[in-house]
Amino acid sequence: MANGSSASVVLQAPQAVRQAIQAGIVRVRRNVEQADIASLKDSYGKMQARSENDNRSWIFWAEYHGFNRFDCWHHSGVGSQRFPYDLFLPWHRAYLLYFERVALAANPGAVLPWWDWTSSTSHQVGVPASFSSSQAGDALASGPVPAGLRTNPNRTRRNPGSPSQLPSAPEIQSIIDNPTTFDDFSGQVQGQHDRIHGWTGGDMGVVAASAFDPIFWSHHCMIDRLWYLWQVKHGVDNIPPSYLNRTLAPWSLTVRDVLDVRQLGYTYGASRVRIQANAFNASVLQQTN
Ligand SMILES: [Cu+2]
User: Fold this and answer.
1) Per-residue model confidence (pLDDT) at position 98
2) Centre of ligand 1 from the C-alpha of residue 198, in Å
């Protein structure tokens, strides 16, 4: 497929998502410990094998975050610019959505799984075993880095801390339960997010390189899930109104567009979900197992 035509496939993805929602079915992002790991590995392997000039490649998508485009939002900033608002959560939600469309195109079973670093398994093994194969070039254990970043080693590396230092489930639950503002919640979640990047170490500890590591996507899936859980508890549209029409550059999606994950065609946890077409308010959603 030529690059030009695959670009339009990716950028028109919300149309396909809309059709899936109108059919009454959305995909379910699962815990890494219950996910379809074989499909994910197949998909990531295909993306990693593509040339970095191919807009369906691993490197092309990772480069939105750090080297060499640096479009990501962290702590009220993009690159060296600072703003009086913080799009960390909505920006990464859009980013995961587009990345997942590419992963699903490579293998329809490659729904992004979340890495629950609070689970008892994580507190024993640290980085999930499925992402820690010692086989050279394993598509979940490491990802390729572009020659412009460095040539040796040409794949990502980690240097994780002790599993006992990972956040506890009660610690994270208290952040979700605590009634507070969106900005305060976002700041607290970013603090935990930073902590996991640092704990994982190696390339995950560096903004320029982190998105090339396959565990990045499941770490951010966990972060997106925490926002989802907070929204279920405190309101889907619980965000300053001035945020709603801000665009999540370089994409044309706005903050309003990404508030309701079920509008985006996915949810967390339940095996099957029915949704009323064009529903925006969470109160009209019906979840079935
Ligand atoms: Cu991150």
Assistant:
1) 96
2) 10
Q: Is the pLDDT of residue 5 over 50?
A: no
Centroid of ligand 1 to alpha carbon of 73 (angstroms): 9
Cα of 193 from ligand 1 centre, angstroms: 6
φ, ψ of residue 161 in degrees (nearest 5): -85, -165
Task: Measure 172 CA to ligand 1 centroid, in angstroms.
Answer: 17
Give the integer Cα–Cα distance in Å for 208 and 210. 6
Q: How many C-alpha atoms does 242 have within 13 Å on its Cβ side?
A: 5
- How much is the average pLDDT of 123-134? 98
Q: Looking at this protein, which amino acid is placed at residue 265?
A: G
Quick one: pLDDT at residue 1?
32
Joined together, the tokens standing for residue 118 give 């609070």
How many Cα atoms occupy the beta-carbon half-sphere of 204 within 13 Å? Answer: 26
Q: Are strands 272-274 and 286-288 parallel, antiparallel or unpaired?
A: antiparallel
Distance 133 CA to ligand 1 centre (A): 22
Q: Is the per-residue pLDDT at 125 higher than 60?
A: yes
CA distance 114 to 145: 22
Q: What is the DSSP letter of 207?
A: T
* Distance of CA 192 from the midpoint of ligand 1 (Å): 10
- Go through the chain and tell me how many residues it has: 289
* Interval between CA 54 and ligand 1 midpoint (Å): 24
